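Database export, one record per block. Field names are fixed; values are copied verbatim from the stored entry.
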Amino acid sequence: MENETIITALSLIGTLAGSFGGILVSSKLTNYRIEQLEKKVDKHNNFAERLPVIEEKLKDHDRRLSEVEHETA
């Protein structure tokens, strides 16, 4: 009976260690993927902030081009 108790205890310890190890690895992978997604979102947000500035510059260039076309015509 003593051997069975030892084997049961060792099995329990092994199962708990395996479960916690799997949880830790899964947690690290999830955190890594979240960090990568956050970097992508930051890039997108930066682009979204710059787009209106670019649109204004394009409007200004279009206006200047129209003025030059009218002057040369």
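Remark 1: DSSP finds one helix and no strands in the chain.
Remark 2: The CA atoms of residues 42 and 69 lie 40 Å apart.
End of record.
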